[in-house]
Amino acid sequence: xxxxxKYIIFxxxxxxxxxxxxxxRFRSRLQTARKQWKVEExxxxxxxxxxxxxxAYEKILSSASTVDAPWYIVPEDRKWYRDVGIAGIVLSTLRxxxxxxxxxxxxxxxxxxxxxxxx
Length: 119
Description:
Layout: E1 12-16, H1 19-31, H2 41-47, H3 50-64, E2 71-75, H4 79-97, H5 108-117
Parallel strand pairs: 1-2
């Protein structure tokens, strides 16, 4: 039996949307029938607390970010940019892990001989 070391790497992404973009998305949801299901009153009332939310996010993200589990603040105003940013974080993490295909746990020569000798 082969012993394998298993571990988990955490990468936390905070998707940050600007105040202006949030307003535009709210406007779009109100004007587009297929998006209206996303409209919630809390979104509009919470928007009034934007400065307090930003202060809270700064405190939480700076205190909860560590070398082993960092927070990445990813701009989300443009979804394609968000996607590229997250893909870059994932790719960089995978490269740092240097993943390898595991070696088989069986004797492949024995398996090949068995396979060739069977009908």
